[in-house]
Amino acid sequence: MSRAPARQAPSEARVIEIDTRRVLTREQHHFAVIDIGSNSLRLVVYDNLSRAPFPRFNEKSLCALGAGLAETGQLSQEAIELAVNAVERFEAIARAMQVDTIHVLATEATRRASNGAALVDAIRARTGLETRVLSGQEEATYASLGVISGFFQPKGLTGDMGGGSLEVAEIIGDRVGERMVSMPLGALPVRSMLAEGYDAAKRRIDALLDASLPPLLTEPVFYAIGGGWRALARVHIATNRMPINVVHGYDVDADEVRGFAKKIARMSPAEVAALPDVPSRRVDTLQSAAIVLYRVLRQLKPERVVFSVFGLREGWLYAQLDREEQYRDPLLEGAQSIGLPAARVPDFSAALARWTDDLFPGETLRDRRLRLAVCALTDMAWRDHEKVRAMESFRRLLQFPFIGISHPERAFLAVAIMARYGGNVDETVRGITQNLLSPNQLRRAEILGRVLVLGHRFSASVPEILDHARIRLESNAVRLEVLSSQRIPDSDAVQARLRQLARVSGVEGAEIVQAAAC
């Protein structure tokens, strides 16, 4: 059984620290979720049951369980057989991958069908797996927990459009609110509505929304979940040639999304198929996804739409975690999982975090987690050739599947690590980041990167040496203070890194001084 979601605690109680020992000694236990939807079944095998799970394997099987359900009230025998065969394959794959735990979840089509129990029984007979048939409220709750697990304290309304239904719920930081609803506005029933004509479909959708949609009473943000809406985000990213091709965290003005969705909802199938980067398996249902998003946004009137790759499956995983694990930061957990095992000296990331604690006065909790994520990734490319480390790291981090991070924060992370490897903020970098980072944010990221490379060079990545030095960014000079108890002579290389930091910081002075031990 899943645990109840953790209650929201004051933000100042959240601990944001690099924990090297915990990360490196954590045992991996693969965890799999099989999601039986109205249109498709999907298996996702995650590397671990943790705050920042990375998918090791992901496969979808189109079974269209919900096809014809509105007319007959039943799942067809053909669809049941296809679904059971898919689950049988998924179970065999998961066992071969030595997955410790397999959970099977079923949603709208299975719970609505009069013979949904026959599918559950067949899966049990063929695989031994038990299927949890979620209620509409549970589906809305777990989809919303997926957003909570994938973002940093999100607030607003979530909408999860699947094959058979649309779930909308309120999220408030680290918990799901009381307002939630499930409506029969999934891709398959809406496609049937569109077959009767665009205007008729619009009236039927509006009637359902008018009767059920909860008001947007928190932050004016709508979090869009589900394959159809992810496909719309992909098309929007490609159409506008955005520099970051990551759907998760893609944040767009709501009026722009509404107009974009309205336009696609009126397209012919041939026009939809010709859209840039449209997934071929979504061509038949993209109009359904578009018209529902258009009408939802028209009624809710949010200011922003944020697309989420995390939804029901990830929310289910999140609910299995204990409260301590739930409350860890998703970005920092992911950065530590990637950066620390790859580092030459894993303990050095925590030393850098301590060394930079006073670098930016007035640092917020959100900024702190970003700085510590940079520190955790500081040695990620040491095996690469020195001529490609900077830009390869920059481009990789722009697109890396981290969670709990916005697109501007991705750009900050990428610039900081690029600067850590000696890269310059040239016209290429400015062109990519110009709509993501302000000049001040860009400069701040470069300063952080230059401080890190100075720390690596001065201490040879030895934590004990770095702990006996301090970096000071003052109005007229950058000073590297070395405690008088230490005898680590400087070098031309250290002086050069210090001058680079001074130049980026906009000051002329750069000096190494002896400081009294505290």
Give me some keywords for this one:
alpha/beta; elongated; 14 strands; 23 helices; six-stranded mixed beta sheet
Short summary:
By secondary structure, this protein is α/β, with parallel strands linked by helices. The chain is built from 23 helices and 14 strands.
Structural overview:
The protein has 518 residues and is α/β, with parallel strands linked by helices. It has helices at 20-25, 69-72, 77-96, 108-112, 116-127, 136-150, 187-194, 198-212, 227-239, 254-265, 269-273, 286-300, 312-320, 323-326, 330-342, 348-355, 365-376, 389-399, 407-420, 427-433, 439-459, 463-466, 492-505, and strands spanning 31-36, 40-46, 55-62, 101-106, 131-133, 155-161, 166-172, 175-183, 221-225, 251-253, 304-307, 469-473, 477-483, 509-515. The strands form 3 sheets. It has a 6-stranded mixed β-sheet with strand order 8-7-6-9-11-10, with helices on both faces. β7 (166-172) and β8 (175-183) form a beta hairpin. α18 runs antiparallel to α19 (407-420) and α21 (439-459) packs antiparallel against α23. The longest helix is centred in the C-terminal third of the chain and has 21 residues, at 439-459. The N and C termini lie far apart (52 Å). Residues 1-12 have low confidence and may be disordered.
Task: Furnish the topology, listing elements before pairings.
Layout: H1 20-25, E1 31-36, E2 40-46, E3 55-62, H2 69-72, H3 77-96, E4 101-106, H4 108-112, H5 116-127, E5 131-133, H6 136-150, E6 155-161, E7 166-172, E8 175-183, H7 187-194, H8 198-212, E9 221-225, H9 227-239, E10 251-253, H10 254-265, H11 269-273, H12 286-300, E11 304-307, H13 312-320, H14 323-326, H15 330-342, H16 348-355, H17 365-376, H18 389-399, H19 407-420, H20 427-433, H21 439-459, H22 463-466, E12 469-473, E13 477-483, H23 492-505, E14 509-515
Parallel strand pairs: 1-4, 4-5, 6-9, 9-11, 13-14
Antiparallel strand pairs: 1-2, 2-3, 6-7, 7-8, 10-11, 12-13
Helix pairs in contact: 3-5, 6-13, 7-12, 8-12, 9-12, 10-12, 15-17, 16-17, 17-19, 18-19, 19-21, 21-23
